Amino acid sequence: MPNFTFKYFRKKTLIEQIGEDKYNNIFNSLNFNCTYFKIKNLKLPIVFYHPLKHIFNRMEKDRIFKDRLCQNSIINACYKLINLFKIKGLLIFIYPKSLCPYLIMEIKK
Predict the structure, then answer these.
(1) By three-state DSSP, how is residue 31 classified?
(2) 5: which DSSP letter?
(3) Taking a C-beta distance cutoff of 8 angstroms, is the pair 98, 35 a contact?
(4) DSSP labels for 39-76?
(5) Do 97 and 48 meet the contact criterion of CB atoms below 8 Å apart?
(6) pTM higher than 0.70 for the full model?
(7) How far apart are CA 103 and CA 51, in angstroms?
(8) Are residues 44 and 20 in the same domain?
(9) Which of 53, 68, 42 is nearest to 104 (CA)?
């Protein structure tokens, strides 16, 4: 029951530790409208990886992941066509990172 635990017990503990204002500010500072361009404009030492490339690499190396994704007949057919025509590199090149639904980033030291 993680929702119950967080809602009642963890919330109370966090409010006691950091105060109610800081607790509320944690949730206010979560930014769900954060985009690739907003993060990039911060000029932080972050490297962005292409999610499509990551998915293709994972499908080649992780058999369980591939089996799970290929259970969907549309995904399976598309993946077979992509492999048949050998257009993975072209898709990665054409499809920009900025339009991906999620970002994979690594913070440089």
Answers:
(1) coil
(2) I
(3) yes
(4) HHTTT-SEEEE-HHHHHHHHHHH-HHHHHHHTTSHHHH
(5) yes
(6) no
(7) 7
(8) no
(9) 53
In this structure, what token pair is assigned to residue 94? 């054409």
Structural domain harbouring 64:
34-107
82, with CB counted inside 10 A (0-12, 13-18, 19+), is middle
The answer to whether 91 touches 82, Cβ cutoff 8 Å, is yes
Tell me, yes or no, whether 56 and 73 share the same domain.
Answer: yes
* 61 CB-side CA count, 13 A: 6
User: Going residue by residue through the chain (109 aa), what tens digit of pLDDT does each one get?
Assistant: 556 666 666 777 878 888 888 777 766 655 556 778 888 888 888 888 999 999 999 999 999 999 999 999 999 999 999 999 999 999 999 999 888 888 888 888 6
Asked if 22 and 41 sit in the same domain, the reply is: no
Please tell me the distance from the alpha carbon of residue 61 to that of residue 22, in angstroms, as a whole number: 43
Q: Are 20 and 58 contained in the same domain? A: no
